[in-house]
Design a protein that fits this description.
Helices cover 40% and strands 18% of the residues. The chain is built from 5 helices and 6 strands; from the N terminus they run E-E-H-H-E-E-H-E-H-E-H.
Amino acid sequence: MRPSIIIKTGDITKEKACAIVNAANSSLMGGGGVDGAIHRAGGSQILEACRIIRKEQYPDGLPTGEAVATTAGKMPAEYVIHTVGPIYHQCDGKCAALLASCYTHSLKKAAQLGCREIAFPAISTGIYGYPKEEAAKIAYEAVKCFLDDGHTMEVRFVFHNSDDKEIFEKALQHS
Ligand code: ADP
């Protein structure tokens, strides 16, 4: 495994990284799961920044697979990169490409911001129902591709519990 990829358990809101990624919904107005946790931990500055992005850039909502950055408010990170994962039962043959795009666009955004560390939650594998093993392979491949392109970044996969971390690690062994 590459040293610049770290797989760990924890609460992503507590990560000391330049950027943490939010598995947002297209409204960018907050929601359940990791999205709710990030907005609660970061405070109202994040929602205010999201409102401006909606008004100025995405009046119809952030499309699936895209990524935008805001402040991280009161959290230790500098930025939150909000990306919208695919809803597994609504993405037909495009699920894998859309999920990969979440990772790639988030990584590119972090690079544009000058970040050297980024922490990801398991995008789409909660409320959005993406099978965890499949999602693991897609996430890892997208990150590996980005790093193989010559980008220097520490990429952390942060799982909320050890079961999810194990599923991720096992999926990589079998890929
Ligand atoms: P989605 O709607 O994209 O499926 P969810 O927030 O429902 O997003 O879940 C995505 C993943 O984030 C799940 O694996 C969930 O266990 C995890 N998660 C929830 N809260 C946190 C947190 N505070 N830190 C890290 N991961 C979290």
